[in-house]
Write the structure tokens for this entry.
Amino acid sequence: MVEFKNVSMSYEKGHEILKDISFKLEPGSMHFLTGPSGSGKTSLLKLIYLAQKPSCGKILMFGRDVAKAEREDLPALRRRIGVVFQDFRLLDHMSAVHNVALPLRIAGASLAEVSEHVEELLSWVGLGDKMNSNPTALSGGEKQRVAIARAVIRRPDILVADEPTGNVDPKMAERLMYLFVELNKLGTTIVIATHDDALVAKVGAPRLHLIGGKLLQLKGKKGDISMFIENEEISR
Amino acid sequence: MSQSFDFLPTINNREATKLLPWVMAIMVYLSSLAATGSLLLNAGFEDWSSSLQGRITVQVTGDDSELIVVQSLEIQETLRDTPGIKSVQILSNDEISLLLEPWLGAGNITEDLPLPIMMDVMINEGAYINLGALESKIRQISDSVYLDDHAQWLSRFYDLASMVEYMSVGILLMILLVSVCIVIFATKSSMSEHKKTLEIMHLMGAQDKMVARTYQKRFMYYGLKGGVIGLVFSFLTVYGLLNLLQNLSEGFVEMPTLPYLKMYILLLIPALFSLLTMLAARITVLRALGRMV
């Protein structure tokens, strides 16, 4: 589904944020992306959701090297990826329903066609009574749930979430994580960037760990954090 | 995938482009005035020149008023016998006085003021008159006869008319250019204001053309709205000005009539501005989005 081969990335002419990253995410897998602040987690996610291009290396997604894809081919690929941003990035001038419906509207559907489906999803994330509220009237946790609903509404092949539980209380964090796990069971490949080690341990999915732009990988075993393998070893 | 929808906030007091329809209204107003002025002058030139074309003015001067009368009658006969000449009419003293009135004032032309004898010669349509030969012929009757086919004056007149028209077109083009620059600036300003929205749309897979369509629709509306307002105000201004000029110039210079049939061209100005606004917005958005990954 997603394969990075010796990928490096730097912004403009700055220093390298990501250095020689290689990993492979199998279809339907779920991974956590961890690491200290500034280690390159968000940059790596940006490469996955096609907001940036690597400086070098190959990124294989949907059977093609997206690093070399033509610009006009990228929108169709992006529509297969759901993103939950750290800062939600909801559109303040739109209600929750309109925000969640956005990916479907972009795909060409009218609001009338999708409203039932959108409302159902919003109810499922516990926002049945806030459908017509604008993000400015929602709490952090509610915004996060709207952002997640927007990311999953089209049943994306890949779901990328950047600190999705960073703004919610532990109970809501668990609930949201349950949502991700359920979605993963339906076949969506999921990558979640988080600082919440307890949550990672609880879910037990394998972890991609970044330190200073280099990748270390923890092979998935619930609660075990002693199995870091250097990036060089993974590529072997 | 081609369906578009308006994902931008509705226009409110904080919108950067809120004033754009009014800017467009002023631009269309100025353009319409320039175009109306050009049409009006053009109509005036046509009226005045058509009244002079196909005519020759013959002037017979001399100190002996009785002699010039006899010579004039002879010249009239000679002209009447010339092929291609439709009519020859000697102007009466009253008619000549009337022509001089705007310069000398009514009642200031006395009996002792030596007036030339003037003839208004009409030429058949399409007929060719060799003026040099004709002048030589009638100069055998009088040395003090002058023929004027107004060619020199008309040529200057046409030069002036062309210059005024070129100036109008130039003014119109400058206004259009400034308008396009304003639209580009407004589009960039709006894109900057809605940067977050555009980024989200981009990352969710919106095609550039879809985003551009939303902008072009909105800017076309601004252009059309401003255009209609500007056109209405320009019509009111022209109507008022014409009435004022008509009153001021009464009896002195004949005012050209507004070429109503050609005025439909003015209706194209808001459409032109609307189209230009739409295209400028579309190209600006596509170029800006093209710089994104």
About this structure: DSSP finds eight helices and eleven strands in chain A. Chain A has two domains: 2-80+156-235, 91-155.
